[in-house]
Amino acid sequence: MAEEDVVPKTFRALVEGADRKFARVRDFPSYGRAQGQHYFHKVFKAYMRLWKYQQENRAQLVKAGLNRWEIGEIAGRIGQLYFGQYMRTSEARFLVESYVFYEAILKRRYFEGCEVKDLRIRFKELRFYARFLLVSLILNRTEMVKVVVEKLRALVDDCKANFRETNFKEWKLVVQEILCFINIDTTFTIPSSRPFRYCAILDNHPNSVPYVARFHAKKVVKFRDAVLMSYHRNEVKFAELTLDAYRMMQCLEWEPSGSFYQNHPAEPKENGVAADYSAASGLIDMNLAADMTDPTLPPNPRKAILYRPSVTHLIAVMATICEELPPESIMLVYLSASGKPGHINASHVETSGGSRRTRKSMLASHNSLERNCSAPESHVNGVKESSDYYDHYLWLGPKGNGGSSNLYPGDIIPFTRRPLFLIIDSDNSHAFKVLHGAERGEKAALLLSPLRPILKDPSTADISQNGSQFTFFLTAPLQAFCQMVGFSLSDSDMEVLNTAESILSTAFSKWEVILCKSPSLDLVWAQVLSDPFLRRLIVRFVFCRAVLSAISLSEGSDQYLPLCLPQLPNSLSPKSDVVQSSVSQLADHLKVSHCFHFADT
């Protein structure tokens, strides 16, 4: 073998070896604590060796015909590797590392300048843009998302013009998906709004911090793992991330208190001179993300995010996580799906405007349905019959109504042997009330959505267009409130927005103190009160319930109200002074008091 052939052949061998290992780790499921960790380290080591080798032998490799897009492909694989590890662990540093590599590929134009007629490379570039979009979306890099969307749209148009015999319909749908997503997501529509993630500066309320710190329950569990699933027909999504799952996953992560979202990697220099990337180059600082993360924050809870799973797959994931759950830990399960296909569509909602007579007639028209949804439970000697657990369900399936696509309340019961925090967002959520008292070991915490949303503009009620109202309240309460009453938020309303956020923060702080001081607080809630994510969900539920209660009529309005089991203290009921006064204050501030019916306090 000639000496000049050794380097390129060694490089090709390293590429093939790394790709084989990558194919193995790529197919590992993204849930479970032990899944694929050994293989991840092996494939990561293989790509580190490959990356270092191409850096050290770049001149010879370029002479032997190494293309820039090949370096971009290697960097893209490393970005994929990091993103996959983020999805398995929820560790922010992996997401940031992935972003660093994808951003470098974009800035150094590794795929640009390739032969236009090479369809294979064009597809690689399309996939790169789609993956970079997903990473940027989760990192809330709004400006980068807009840049990449335009590049993706231009590339799809270019491919259609140059490869007329190839169908690019799927890529046109990708562009439509991301445009729809960013037109709805408030991160893009209201850039100054608070992040979905838990921000230590904004979400730690100074007045309640001492009470939370001193609070001691008889038992305390740690929030370590979550299962997030959203399954609706034609729901807003990008790739395999639905809008509701995106909002909830961010709600269960820490917002770095530093400014790494605004940081941009400095351009690497060689011998004090700015590097020239016009030739084949592979200089990407693999430790750059260390300066972009926040080491002071606790780890994020692990999250298994499932896209349109079968019932058996969902149960298998829950079983795996439940089995691996550390002692004294709790699992959060978020399920967003429709109920029986025969149920009235979510677009049939009560409006927050109009006459009381109109609203009464709307409620009356749903009475028969509500009686069916909330039929009395069958009991024998005071004990629930097993049929109660299998009368109603969530519908996880395509068109049609096969029993294999039904998730019943009874399917959840085996997982109550461990602590469970269950959120059901569905037009059939109240059917899951039967779980309360049917637990097999640990009493479960249940947050159940209303059966119907209430919105001033009924067109915004369609989950396929705007996501779920209940999930929106749990993840972005102010934006959900404004959407409900038809109040338009924009960056020109900064003072109004800040004051509204201040009203909510003050209310949440008071409610946290009440929870800490309440002697009637059930242990189910007390044991999770020290966890910032779950505590925030609880007080946001209190807000959601109070708002919907004040906007609903008392007659037949149960279907428009969320439920929690066990019950929270009466001191935080929708009609309590401390809760109702806060909702009234917010409504007065936004000049939407006419939408509500507050009791005299």
From TrEMBL:
This is Protein SCAI-like. It comes from the Eukaryota. GO terms for biological process: DNA-templated transcription. GO terms for molecular function: transcription corepressor activity. It comes from Hibiscus trionum (Flower of an hour).
